[in-house]
């Protein structure tokens, strides 16, 4: 009878499993979202090539994207617990956004 208190309640076991599953899901989701965000900013390369060839694009969108990415990187880095997926997902946007902006100017 005294050992009965050592057995975990089934509800608590299910809650732990749910938390572990959610943590795994969030971890996978953060990695996939980071890769997709990086691909989004790497896609600026074609616009950069067009700009350098004299087919200039509009400079406002990549400038605003670079500013937005800068703000998200600052947010992710200076949080008490750094949010590395958010940081690395946005960091390429700063670089590619600025390069695209600069090459749009003529």
Task: Describe, in plain words, how this protein is organized in 3D.
The chain crosses the membrane at residues 28-46, 58-78, 84-105. The protein has a single domain, classed as Up-down Bundle (Monooxygenase), CATH 1.20.1280. The chain is mainly alpha-helical and 106 residues long. Helix content is 77%, strand content 0%. The chain contains 4 helices and no strands. It has helices at 10-42, 44-52, 60-78, 84-104. The longest helix is centred in the N-terminal third of the chain and has 33 residues, at 10-42.
Brief synopsis:
This protein is mainly alpha-helical and 106 residues long. Helix content is 77%, strand content 0%. The longest helix is centred in the N-terminal third of the chain and has 33 residues, at 10-42.
Provide keyphrases for this structure.
single chain, Monooxygenase, 106 residues, mainly alpha
Q: Helices, strands, pairings?
A:
Blueprint: H1 10-42, H2 44-52, H3 60-78, H4 84-104
Total of domains: 1
Strand content: under 5%
User: What would you call the shape?
Assistant: elongated
The chain-level mean pLDDT equals 89
Q: What's the architecture in CATH terms?
A: Up-down Bundle
CATH class: Mainly Alpha
Structural class: mainly alpha
Sheet with the most strands, sense and barrel status: none
Q: Roughly how many Å apart are the termini?
A: 84 Å
Uncertain stretches: none
Compute the number of helices: 4
Oligomer kind: single chain
In sequence order, what are the helices and strands, one letter per element? HHHH
The helical percent reads: over 70%
- Please give the number of β-strands: 0
CATH fold-level topology: Monooxygenase
Radius of gyration: 22 Å
Organism: Limosilactobacillus balticus
Protein name: Integral membrane protein
Transmembrane segments: 28-46, 58-78, 84-105
Keywords: Membrane, Transmembrane, Transmembrane helix
């Amino acid at each position: 009878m005294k050992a009965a208190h050592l057995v975990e309640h089934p509800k608590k076991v299910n809650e732990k499993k749910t938390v572990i599953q959610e943590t795994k899901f969030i971890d996978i989701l953060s990695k996939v979202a980071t890769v997709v965000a990086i691909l989004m900013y790497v896609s600026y390369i074609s616009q950069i090539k067009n700009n350098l060839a004299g087919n200039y694009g509009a400079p406002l969108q990549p400038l605003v994207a670079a500013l937005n990415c800068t703000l998200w990187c600052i947010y992710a880095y200076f949080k008490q617990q750094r949010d590395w997926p958010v940081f690395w997902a946005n960091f390429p946007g700063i670089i590619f956004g600025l390069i695209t902006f600069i090459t749009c100017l003529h």
